[in-house]
# Entry
Amino acid sequence: MNVTFETKHGNRGGKDEWLTPPEIIKALGEFDLDPCSPINRPWDTAKKHYNIFDNGLEQPWTGRVWCNPPYGKETGLWLKRCAEYGNAIALTFARTETKMFFSCVWDKATAVFFIKGRLKFHHVSGEQGTSAGSPSVLIAYGKENAIKLKNSEISGMFLWVNGI
Ligand SMILES: C[S@@+](CC[C@H](N)C(=O)[O-])C[C@H]1O[C@@H](n2cnc3c(N)ncnc32)[C@H](O)[C@@H]1O
# Structure
């Protein structure tokens, strides 16, 4: 059974609708595609967006991709696609010990950037929530994206992984 629901913030599907603080995306430069975007977004995150009705995983990806994927088991599918695609920055929780993190990040990413403190994600209404329950990491696939992370003004720790 496929259940969707609306929260008081207008979130459809509930737990997946945690939007990236816009200053994080802005600090990383312009993106061509966000393949996993809300149906009704409060702001653009890229030049082109796919939502759950498009199923961004089944669509062609072009240009530089921004990917803050849906949470849960699905996250690995999105990071796998980012790794295969090779021109993306992804944002996810820093669950560094998981199988998914080993196969899609430690084995495949060009670089990672551990964000200092905890992010406050936004609701689809645009309203900012409280601090997330876990730390977050930005993951670069491709050298240009790694350099963007390295030179960003976001507070945190940059590490080359499979880069130079
Ligand atoms: C964690 S939110 C991030 C939203 C946005 N990318 C951002 O960075 O602010 C994940 C988004 O993926 C969307 N989503 C879930 N499944 C999807 C699918 N199969 N295809 C495209 N988008 C999907 C959800 O509706 C949600 O808006």
Notes: The pocket of S-adenosylmethionine is lined by residues 13, 16-20, 34, 36-38, 45, 50-52, 54-57, 68, 70 (CB under 6 Å). Residues 1-13 have pLDDT under 50 and may be disordered. The first helix runs from residue 22 to 26.
